Amino acid sequence: MNNKTIDILDVLHLRGPNIWTYRPALEAWVDINDLEDFPSNTIPGFYERLTAFLPTLIEHHCGVGERGGFLMRLREGTWPGHIMEHVMIELQNLAGMQSGFGKARETCKRGVYKVVVRARHEEVSRAALVAARDLVMAAIEDKPFDVQGTVDHLRDILESVALGPSTAAIVEAAAERKIPSIRLSSGNLVQLGYGARQRRIWTAETDETSAIAETISRDKELTKTLLQSCGVPVPEGSIVDTANAAWEAAQDIGLPVVVKPLDGNHGRGVSINLNTEAEVRAAFELAEHESSDVIVERFVRGDEHRLLIVGGKLVAAARGEEAWITGDGKSTVMQLIESQLNSDPRRGSSEAHPLNLILTDPDDDPRPVLLQLERQGFTTESVPKDGERVLVQRNGNVSCDVTELVHPSVAKAAALAAEVVGLDIAGVDLVIEDIARPLSEQSGAIVEVNAGPGLNMHLKPADGEARPVGKAIVDHLFKEDENGRIPIVGVTGSNDTTLTARLVAWLLHLQGSYVGLACRDGLFFRQRQVHNRPSDNWERKRQVLLNRMVEAAVFENGAKTILSEGLAYDWCDVGIVTDIAEDDILPSFYVNDADQMSRVIRTQVDVVLPSGTAVLNADDARVADLAPLCDGNVLFFGTSAQSPVLAAYRAEGGNVVYLDGDEVVLVLGEEQTRIVLPEATLELKPVALLAAIAAAWALGISSDLIRAGLDTFMQPADHLAA
Ligand SMILES: Nc1ncnc2c1ncn2[C@@H]1O[C@H](COP(=O)(O)OP(=O)(O)O)[C@@H](O)[C@H]1O
Ligand SMILES: [Mg+2]
Question: For the chain, which domains are there?
Fold first, then answer.
C-alpha cells in the first residue's frame, strides 16, 4: 500500500539572514513519503485542479525566468515539496503578505525536502505552510479545498499581527535608508537602528516626543491658551459642566458655536455650527458622554484641514470634505448613504481605508450623523425629494491632499503651534476657508493640535498625491549621514570562535566603546558577565542590539545557530571566519560534509557591509574560497607570510595580517606595522589571536592599543592552546 501523504516533520523560523536569504524565512522539513514516485505529471487531473484552486500561479516565474515558468515545471513533472513552496508563496501573496522568495531542496534522505519561504510574519507563514500542504493534498486526491476561506483566514492573522499603516510607513522609509528596525512589542513600538544609535517610534510618536507635550495636546483648552499667548489664532471659548452653562456660554460667545469634549479624538462627540438652544443642549449631552469636561467655542467658518508638522516643518496637508447625499424621490436617507457614500471603495472600516463608513462602522458613534440629519428635518428612514441635497457629515472626512496649496503664513502658524505645544511630530487641525491665502486675510483658526497623528490620510489620500511622510519622520530622526548602526563584529567557524570574540570585545573595550558580547562563554556588557550560559543564540544577540548603552557589538555565530535561527543582525562591519574543519558536520540538519558546512558559514561573509571587511583565514582553503562572496573588503590572516593565498593576495596589494616569529605583521596597502607579541599571548591559539588582531585592525584600532590589549587580556583558562 502506497503512503501518498505529506508530513511536516519540523519547522524552523529563521529570524535573520540565513543560508537561503537575507530576510526572515520559514524553513519546513517535509516528508513526501511515496509521493516521491509520483511527480505532478503522473497524477491525472492534478495540474487542472491545482491551477483551478490558484489561477494566479501563472505569475510565478520559478527558475524558468518568465511568466508561467512554474506552470511549465508543473506540466513537465515536479514534486510536492516544490509545489508546496509555490502554493505557500501564493497563499501569502493573496492574503496581502508579499513574498517573492522561496526554495525547495532535496536532502540526503529520500522523500525529505527543505521547503523555505520568505516569512514577514511567522504566524501567517506557519498557517500558510499547513494550508499549502492541505491544498496540494486536496489537488492530489481530487478533493475540494476552500481557497477563499483559507486566504481570508490568513488575512485575518496578518491584520492582527502586522504593524499599523502609519508605523509600517516609517519602518519602510527607514529600510529605504538601510536603517535596521526591531519591533519591540506586538503593538507599534519599534526600534530603528541598533544599540546606542537607536531611536524609537510608536506610531507617529518618537523618543523625542515629550510626554508633557503629549498631555498638553490632549487638553484642547490648555492647548488653545498656550497657542493664543503666542499669537496663533484659536476660537475663543470656555469649559462648561452643565447644559445650562453651555447655553449661557454660547450666548456670551455669540452663535453659531461648537460644542465638543475637552479631550476627545476622532471627532467623537463634536457638534459644530450650532445655532439654537436645543442644538446646544443636545450637543452638550453628546460631548459629555465622551469626556467629563465640555468646551463651548466660537464656530470657525471654512473647511477642516489637517496639517502634518515634522521637526518644525510642514510635510503634508489634507482637506476634509463634507459628505452629502442627493435625493431621488424614492430612496431613504439610509439607502442613499449606502449607494452614494458607503459604496465608495475608499470607504471601509479597516485602517487601510482613507475614509470611514458612515453609520455602519461598528466603532463609530452614529449619533452625530443622526443629529445632523435631524437638524435638517430627516431621519435615516426619510425619503428626500428628487434632487434635494442633504448634508450627512460635516467633518471627519479629511483625505484630500492639498500640500502644494498651503500658503507659507499658514504653514508657519501650524509649525509654531506644534512648537508651542512642544511636539516634534504634530497633526494640526485647522479650519480655514482658503488654505492658499494668508491667514490674516480670513477668519481661520487652529482648533486642535494632535500628538501621534495618523498618517494614513497623507499616505493614501482619497484625492491627490500621496506624501512621503514616513521618510520625513525618518529624516527627522536620523541625519543624512546617520544610519543607526553601531560597529558589529560576527565570528564564525569550527574552532576558536569564542576566544576570538572575547579578544575582539576586549580590544574594542579598551578603545573606549561600551561593548556588548554574546558568545558561548555567556552574555557580557562592558566586560561584565550578565549571563554565564552559552549565549551564542539569537535571543541573546538581540538583547545586545536592544541595549541602549551598547556602542559596539561582538557576536559568536555557531553553525547550529545560523541553521536553526539565522543571524541576529542584518549587516555587520566585520565578519570573521576562523576555519571550516573537515569533520565539522551537523547530520541532524542534513549537513553531512565540510562543503555543505561551508555554505552555512558563508552566511557570515554574505552580510558584511560594502563598507566593511571579511577577515578570513588564508590557511584554510574553504575559508579562503569565501572571499569573492564579500561585498566589502577582504583581509586575509595566516600563520606565515609564505601561505600561498595570503602571499598572492598581498602581491595584488590586498590587506593581510600574518605571524612572523613572535611578531604579528599588519600590512595595509603600502603601510606595514609590526606588533611584538607579549609573552602571555604566545600561549594563545594563533588562529584566534590573528583573527582578533586582524578584526581590530580592520575596525581602525591602533597597533599600540592592540599591543596594550594583548598585554592585558586575561584569557579564560580553557582558551589556552593545548
Ligand atoms: N471651533 C470650531 N469651528 C469649526 N469647526 C470646528 C471647531 N472645532 C472643531 N471643529 C471641527 O470638528 C473637527 C473635530 O474637532 P477637534 O477639536 O479636532 O476634535 P477631535 O479631537 O475629535 O479631532 C475639526 O477637525 C473641525 O473640522
Ligand atoms: Mg481633531
Answer: 7-161 (no CATH), 236-299 (3.30.1490.20), 488-721 (3.40.1190.10)
